Amino acid sequence: MVAFNLKALLPLAVLITSALASPVSLSVRQSATTCGDTVYSSDDVSTCANAAYSYYSEDSTAGGSTYPHTYNNYEGFSFPVDGPYLEFPLESGSAYDGGSPGADRCVINTNGDYAGAITHTGASGNDFVGCSGTS
């Protein structure tokens, strides 16, 4: 007969119970995306999301612009994270710092979680369409 030391197993039981009781939050990873004919690397997308959250958390905007600002998702995208959402201009090689924003945006929520990438390219009026990976 094998004897178990229940006292020694208690920390393991607590760990397993805790893991089962509280769900693990997984961050959505930023990946490369294509908006119209423009290809953005995962670093570009990550830079955009990080800059947007930094400005938002500091209650400031980039270079006197209005970005980041609220994105209402009138188009009804199925983002993998809950809102409220913010949009911020997506650029290659660096974070947007003011001026003309171009057509492409990264979208984050107010917790700083990446939601997706959207573009005015190919959309009617001031609407957006999803970049690759955003639907």
Q: How would you portray this structure in words?
A:
Belongs to the ribonuclease N1/T1 family. Keywords: Disulfide bond, Endonuclease, Hydrolase, Lyase, Nuclease, Signal. Its EC number is 4.6.1.24. It comes from Mollisia scopiformis (Conifer needle endophyte fungus). It catalyses: [RNA] containing guanosine + H2O = an [RNA fragment]-3'-guanosine-3'-phosphate + a 5'-hydroxy-ribonucleotide-3'-[RNA fragment]. It contains 2 helices and 7 strands. The relative contact order is 0.19. About 15% of the residues have low confidence. A 5-stranded antiparallel β-sheet has the order 3-4-5-6-7, with helices on one face. The protein has a two-stranded antiparallel sheet with strand order 1-2. The radius of gyration is 20 Å and the shape is globular. It has a single domain, classed as Nuclear Transport Factor 2, Chain: A. The longest helix is centred in the N-terminal third of the chain and has 16 residues. Strand 5 and strand 6 form a beta hairpin. With 135 residues, the chain is an alpha+beta fold.
